[in-house]
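Regression test case RT-17, inverse folding.

Input:
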């Protein structure tokens, strides 16, 4: 597939998602609005008080938040199944991807891409749409809670999502986090266009071993059928960088762990 046809596919996906809500029973696609976490209603869900995650199932009519295949989860190595073959995850992130916009949607800080990079996963192409942050992490590894989790959200032409999860631990500065934080602060409800190139390859851990399982969006409508790829090894960012992210997002913008309900988590060798 040529680069031009891939980019045209990205725009086709966006147009389709803007026009129609594709979900009917058995369908696992999401709308652009859901994907970009653009719900700004202050009486809607939140991470605090009576609209916090434990109430989402009750207050979000028609959402999947009470479903059996929800995210995040606590990944316990003892209970995972190791795959023998090398994984078919391939990331095609340009060294000069254009970031088009940063926004604070009241739930997280999110960066969007004009022409997304893409990944190949499970035999399909998924285009990068946006990345955003949670503090502290949503996925736990053997019960360990990392201070930051980064979600790289990708979508295919059918509206199915694959989210790459990168955990962050505190240590030395991260150049790419520093670059992104150069566009902060940004007030809640605001967005601003930006035009800068970045290399998302710098954000990936050097050891690409990852866990995979089928889960959901971690925010309402908690849509299921999401492919999760959680890298086992964290990246390093500084305490200052963690604190800057924290000060630009709602406090504790994470959902607590959800039951596995018999799902299998695979370990994919790097
Ligand atoms: Zn997220």
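Golden output:
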């Amino acid at each position: 597939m040529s680069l031009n046809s891939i980019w045209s596919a990205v725009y086709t996906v966006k147009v389709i998602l803007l026009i129609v809500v594709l979900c009917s029973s058995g369908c696992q696609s999401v709308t652009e609005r859901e994907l970009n976490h653009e719900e700004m209603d202050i009486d809607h869900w939140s991470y605090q008080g009576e609209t916090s995650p434990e109430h989402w199932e009750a207050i979000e009519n028609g959402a999947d938040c009470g479903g059996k295949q929800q995210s995040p989860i606590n990944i316990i190595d003892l209970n995972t199944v190791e795959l023998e073959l090398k994984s078919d995850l391939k990331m095609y992130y340009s060294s000069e991807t254009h970031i088009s916009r940063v926004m604070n949607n009241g739930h997280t800080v999110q960066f969007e891409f004009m022409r997304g990079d893409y990944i190949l996963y499970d035999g399909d192409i998924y285009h990068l749409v946006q990345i955003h942050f949670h503090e502290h992490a949503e996925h736990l590894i053997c019960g360990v809670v990392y201070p930051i989790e980064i979600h790289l959200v990708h979508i295919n032409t059918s509206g199915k999502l694959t989210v790459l999860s990168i955990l962050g631990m505190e240590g030395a500065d991260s150049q790419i986090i520093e670059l992104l934080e150069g566009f902060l602060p940004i007030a809640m409800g605001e967005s601003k266009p930006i035009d800068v190139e970045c290399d998302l390859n710098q954000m990936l851990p050097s050891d690409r071993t990852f866990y995979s399982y089928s889960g959901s969006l971690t925010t309402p409508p908690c849509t299921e059928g999401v492919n999760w790829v959680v890298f086992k090894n964290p990246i390093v960012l500084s305490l200052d960088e963690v604190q800057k992210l924290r000060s630009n997002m709602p406090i504790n913008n994470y959902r607590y762990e959800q039951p596995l309900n018999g799902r299998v988590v695979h370990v994919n060798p790097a």
